[in-house]
């Protein structure tokens, strides 16, 4: 699972435990360096098992950068909720149903004529079936 390099020796030290984990929550810093670490960890551990924490806002203008800021500004209950509400780590090419809800609604309610297809030539049948090119 993990390649043996010194940079990630801490992963090797926990390899036995990590192999058994079905869910790994990544709570790295929200800056670009932290996101890069999360990407490397997810790739090494298996993105399908990883979940990532989305840090909340600490005020109107700024996001918390890490767990410590959540504790300092919002308290331990907020940190617990943030970790409990971690999101699946995004996997390229894997989509969620909600990504297509708008398109499905348009098709179902026939609000976009482009999606309806071409007439069959029989009006009675067109209400039930259209040829889509």
Automatic annotation (TrEMBL):
PANTHER family: T7-LIKE MITOCHONDRIAL DNA HELICASE, TWINKLE MTDNA HELICASE. This is Toprim domain-containing protein. Coiled coil: none annotated. InterPro entries: Twinkle-like (IPR027032). GO terms for molecular function: 5'-3' DNA helicase activity; single-stranded DNA binding. It comes from Zingiber officinale (Ginger).
């Amino acid at each position: 699972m993990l390649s043996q390099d010194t940079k990630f020796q801490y992963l090797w030290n926990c390899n036995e435990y990590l192999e058994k984990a079905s869910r790994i929550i990544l709570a790295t810093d929200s800056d670009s360096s932290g996101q890069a670490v999360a990407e490397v960890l997810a790739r090494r551990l298996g993105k399908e098992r990883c979940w990532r924490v989305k840090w909340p806002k600490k005020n109107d203008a700024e996001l918390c950068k890490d767990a410590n800021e959540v504790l300092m500004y919002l308290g331990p209950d907020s940190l617990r909720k943030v970790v409990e509400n971690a999101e699946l780590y995004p996997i390229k090419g894997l989509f969620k149903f909600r990504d297509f809800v708008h398109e499905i609604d348009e098709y179902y309610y026939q609000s976009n004529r482009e999606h309806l297809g071409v007439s069959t030539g029989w009006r009675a049948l067109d209400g039930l079936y259209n040829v889509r090119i």
